[in-house]
Amino acid sequence: MRRLAVCTAVALAVTAWSGTAHAEPADCSWAETASRLLTKLRQAGDPQAGAGIRTRLLELGFGADGSPPARCTTTRGGEDPLQGVPERGIFAGPGTGEVITVGPGESIGAANPEPGDVVEIAAGTYAAFTPTSGADGAYVTYRAAPGAEVVITGGGDGILDLQGASWVHLDGLTVRDAGRFAIQITDSDHIAITDCEIDGSQDGGMRIYGSRYIHVEGCDVHGTNAKGTSADSEALSLEQVDTFEVLNNRVHDNGEEGIDVKYGSTNGAVHHNAAWGNRGPNIYLDGASAVDVHHNWAWATTESSKPGIMLAAESQWSDGNISDITVRDNVVWGNAGGGITLWEGDFSGITIIDNVFGDGDSPPEGGPDGVGISGNTTGPIPGGIASITGDSGDSTSGRRSAGSGDEEDQ
Asked: Which residues form the Right handed beta helix domain (predicted)?
C-alpha cells in the first residue's frame, strides 16, 4: 500500500505540474516535490515500480538519480544570497592594536580601549555598554571571542546606543529582548556591525539615523517590532544615512518592514541579503536616492498588502521624491502582496531590470514616468533555501537564516 501511495503521489505531481504529455512545464514549482517523491519510490525496493513515471520524468529533464532538471536548480537572478563581497570600501577591517579581554562578571564598558584596540569578550551575558570611539582609520572593535555566544541585554532607547560615535566595529554580538531598539546609531560615522544577532525587540531591531559611512554585514535580525504596527522603526532601518552598505544579512520573521532605506538616505547598496517572513515589505526604498538593490532574495511577506520589494516616497515623511534607484538581479516570490510595487511619490531615474519572479508571479509590465522596466522574467524558485532558513524551506521561520525568493507583483 505504501508503494502504491507513493506511485500515485508521483503520478499526480507529474500530471498536475507538467501539463500535457510532452509539454515542458512553464515553471519549476513542481520539481522539488516530484524529485522527493521519486526518491521515496526508488527506496521502496521494487526496481520496476513506476517505470512509466520514471520515463516521463526523464523526458522532463530529470536525472536518472531523480535530481531535478538543471534549469530548476539554477538561479538566473545571480549568485545565491549571503555570498556577497563588500563593494563600497566603507569598512577596511577590525582594529589591529592591543587585545583587551573581558570575562564573565566584568564590565565591557570598563575596558577603556584606545583607537585600533580590540575588546574580546568571553561567552556570557553582559550589561549594556557605550562603545568607545576610535580615530580616523582606526576602529575600536568589540568582538565575541572565537566560538563564544556573547549576549548583551539592558534598557534605554537602545541596548547598544551609539550617539555621536565614530570608528566603532561591533562583531559577533547578540542583542536580545530590547524594550525599544536593540541597536540604535545616531549622528555617527564609520560604524561597522558584522555577524551580529538581534533577537527580539519591542520597536525596531537596528535603527540607524542621521549617520554616514555605515557597514552592516552578516547579521541575523528576527523577532523585532513586537508592538506590531504601533512600533517605531523597522527591523533594519536606515534613515537619513549617507554612504552605506548592507549585505549578507538574514532579516526575517519581524513585525514590520524588513530592510527599510528611507527619508533621504543616499549613496548606498543593499545586496546579497535574504529577507522573508516579515510583515512587509521585505525590502523598502522610501524617499531614498542613489541606491543599488541587487542579488537579494525576498519572499513570504505576511500582510496581504505588502510586496516583496516596494519603492515609494511617503510625502508626510520626505520631500516626495525617490530617484536613481536600481533594482536588479533579485529573486522574489510568494509574497502576500505581490512582487515589486511602485507606490506613491515622484519617481525619477528608477531602473527595474533582470529580476526573477517565481511561484506564478509576473514581472511588472509598466510604471509611472521616470521608471524603466526591462529584462525581468519568471523562473525557478532557488534551491538551497533550507540551508539559509534552517528549516524545510517553505516556511517563514528560521534562526540565523536568510531568505531566498522570487518577487511577486502587487
From this structure: 182-357
